[in-house]
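Severity: low
Component: inverse-folding endpoint
Summary: output formatting inconsistent between runs
Steps to reproduce: submit the following structure tokens with default settings.
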């Protein structure tokens, strides 16, 4: 009987080849293999592949997102447990952000964590082994992605790329404004509250930019990833891009992986994350209201085309509104005597674009297609019923080649 490592390798290879009969035969051999040897081999292979993904740009939240997207809930939970187990094996200090992402995923597992996962899932041995093989197939197929933060094991001070800062009184005020915008049923009120939130974030960004310009060691652009899951992932990516552009950030959509990468400075990244999350809630609520109104008046029932056109129009129009709020904050700061503001902002924009070119040298642009005029009109009206100009910019989404 082959040892556990050979059995696991054969099962993963057969599953990746998409040969159903060969995969079932390999799984049968795994089932009848010596239990302790198989468990040990699976543990080692799972933690090993997870550990190799950190230097390839993947973060715990990224693994959790892709596992939830491509695996069933049991196997997705196994990926979480494997990440926690791998964390327990890491030597030396680990970045604080890394442990923050793992928070709530469970404590350091013991040697029987794989068995406890199977027991908690309430499945038999065959199903548990199939889930483990599925998880390995996914993890071993993941491509390298942009390294946004120094991974565990990176030399101290390897990079000072900025990350979003999530705790401050100003951000609490922004969250409160956006929560009100999400809860109101009056579009004009939601727009006003969102515009105020953007204005506060823009002012905060200006203050941080001027402060950082005088620092001994100025920060560098960092990044974050935002989910753009189905339905209508393209419309969500467009919303990310519009919000990013309004906050001096750049975004790239990885449609095959289900996320958009946003590059920028910490205060700007925080703004993008907060605004995108809130605007997605607002856009979805407005879309559902518009869909109901359309049906009540005997409108077309082509829901998918209507919804997608609605969300695309919403993204473009709200993007213009956010840019206007940001530009107003820039003018106010300049008029108040911040003479060095424009050069500082220009230098930061150049640094973000340079980071974009370094991390994503092969980006392409796609065209936006409008398939439902009624949805487009309703989405535009939902984003701004009064103050936006009719000549909103029509920028395509940038994606990976």
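Observed output (run 2 of 3):
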């Amino acid at each position: 009987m082959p040892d556990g490592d050979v059995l696991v390798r054969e099962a993963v290879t057969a599953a990746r080849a998409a040969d159903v009969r060969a995969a079932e035969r390999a799984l049968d051999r795994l089932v009848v293999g010596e239990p302790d040897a198989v468990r040990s081999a699976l543990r080692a292979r799972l933690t090993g592949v997870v550990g190799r993904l950190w230097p390839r740009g993947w973060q715990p939240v990224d693994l959790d997102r892709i596992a939830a997207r491509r695996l069933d809930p049991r196997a997705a939970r196994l990926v979480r447990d494997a990440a926690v187990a791998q964390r327990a094996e890491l030597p030396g200090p680990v970045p604080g952000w890394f442990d923050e992402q793992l928070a709530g995923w469970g404590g350091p597992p013991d040697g029987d964590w794989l068995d406890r996962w199977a027991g908690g899932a309430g499945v038999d041995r065959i199903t548990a082994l199939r889930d483990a093989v599925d998880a390995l197939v996914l993890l071993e197929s993941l491509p390298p992605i942009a390294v946004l933060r120094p991974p565990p094991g990176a030399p101290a001070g390897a990079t000072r790329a900025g990350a979003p800062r999530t705790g401050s009184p100003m951000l609490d005020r922004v969250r409160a404004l956006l929560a009100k915008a999400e809860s109101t049923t009056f579009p004009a009120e939601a727009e006003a509250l969102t515009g105020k939130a953007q204005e506060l974030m823009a002012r905060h960004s200006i203050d941080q930019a001027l402060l950082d310009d005088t620092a001994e060691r100025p920060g560098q652009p960092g990044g974050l990833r935002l989910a753009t899951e189905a339905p209508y992932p393209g419309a969500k990516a467009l919303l990310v891009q519009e919000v990013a552009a309004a906050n001096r950030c750049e975004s790239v959509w990885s449609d095959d992986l289900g996320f958009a990468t946003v590059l920028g400075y910490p205060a700007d990244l925080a703004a993008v994350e907060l605004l995108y999350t809130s605007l997605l809630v607002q856009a979805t609520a407005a879309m559902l209201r518009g869909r109901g109104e359309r049906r009540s008046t005997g409108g077309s029932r082509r829901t998918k085309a209507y919804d997608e056109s609605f969300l695309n129009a919403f993204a473009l129009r709200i993007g213009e509104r956010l840019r206007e709020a940001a530009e107003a904050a820039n003018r106010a700061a300049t008029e108040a005597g911040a003479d060095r503001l424009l050069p500082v902002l220009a230098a930061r924009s150049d640094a973000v674009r340079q980071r974009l070119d370094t991390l994503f040298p092969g980006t392409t642009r796609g065209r936006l297609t409008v398939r439902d005029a009624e949805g487009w009109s309703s989405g535009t009206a939902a984003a701004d019923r009064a103050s936006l100009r009719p000549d909103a910019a029509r920028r395509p989404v940038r994606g990976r080649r």
